[in-house]
Amino acid sequence: MHLIQGARDWFLARRRILDTWTKFQDKFRVTYVRQNTAVCRWKRMSERVQRKDEPIQQYFQNKVKLCADLRLSTEEMKEQVLVGLWSRDLFNAMSARTHVDVDALLHDMLDYEYRVRQRPECMRTSQSSSNSSSKKQQSGADDKVSTEKKVPRTGDRVKQPMRNEKGEFRCYNCQEYGHMSKDCSKPRADPYCVGCKTTGHFKRDYTNVVNEVSVSEEEPGTAARKYYKQARNISVVAAVVGRNLKSAERTGTKALLSPLLGQRPA
């Protein structure tokens, strides 16, 4: 017999009376095996609850065994079994029903679990299909809106950033990076108006003429309106010619503007 520490001392103190194996078992059980009191059994039973994803059959049988050790009645067993359930819906459904014994309670819970397990499949299928269709519709609408936003309007110029990734400035003349417009070696580009989306003048010239004509058109009289309309056209042409003259003088292409000025090329 191999005993150590306290068990060895216990045996040496009683070895004269422990002359048989039966006596040794009885004395050892009295000393070291603690008897389960009603309080301990009740605590163990009340702490036994169904774990998540634990089968109902496994939880039910273990819970009923602990209740039987305490000699509880059928109603008391039912109450303790339902209190320890993981599912609140199952607890509410079983609490409203009457069961003659614990076996009837078990069968009722298994039937309920089977019906619940069958129903979510249909619900999930219909719900997932409706969600997928709504997502497709929303995605199609978003794609359409994004496509409409990305398509540039006719006559618009693509606006590039002032600087590139290297931090180099953009030239307003050739739209390339690495130098300023005053240092550009390429021919000067025609002025571009962002107001009317045409070349030949800047927006400030177009805006000034339009504002003057808008104010003047408020005055009564057909002759006055006709005069200001003609003045607007002449002003726009004069502004365009003036800009082109300056550009031609810089680039040496003044001969190209002779038809506009009513002159013959030299």
Topology:
Blueprint: H1 5-14, H2 21-32, H3 38-47, H4 56-69, H5 74-83, H6 88-95, H7 102-150, E1 192-193, E2 198-199, H8 203-216, H9 222-251, H10 258-261
Helix pairs in contact: 3-4, 4-5, 4-7, 8-9
**Tally of alpha and pi helices:** 10
Radius of gyration: 49 Å
Proportion of residues in β-strands: under 5%
Proportion in helices: 55-70%
Describe the largest sheet.
2 strands, antiparallel
Pfam families: zf-CCHC (PF00098)
Domain CCHC-type: 170-186
Protein name: CCHC-type domain-containing protein
GO molecular function: zinc ion binding
List keywords for this structure.
266 residues, mainly alpha, two-stranded antiparallel sheet, 10 helices, 2% strand, elongated, Znf_CCHC_sf, CCHC-type domain-containing protein, zinc ion binding, Znf_CCHC, metal-binding
Description:
The radius of gyration is 49 Å and the shape is elongated. The chain is built from 10 helices and 2 strands. α3 (38-47) runs antiparallel to α4, α4 (56-69) crosses α5 and α4 packs antiparallel against α7 (102-150). It has helices spanning 5-14, 21-32, 38-47, 56-69, 74-83, 88-95, 102-150, 203-216, 222-251, 258-261; strands spanning 192-193, 198-199. The termini are far apart. A two-stranded antiparallel ribbon has the order 1-2. The model has no long low-confidence stretch (mean pLDDT 75). The chain has 266 residues and is mostly helical. The longest helix is centred in the middle third of the chain and has 49 residues, at 102-150.
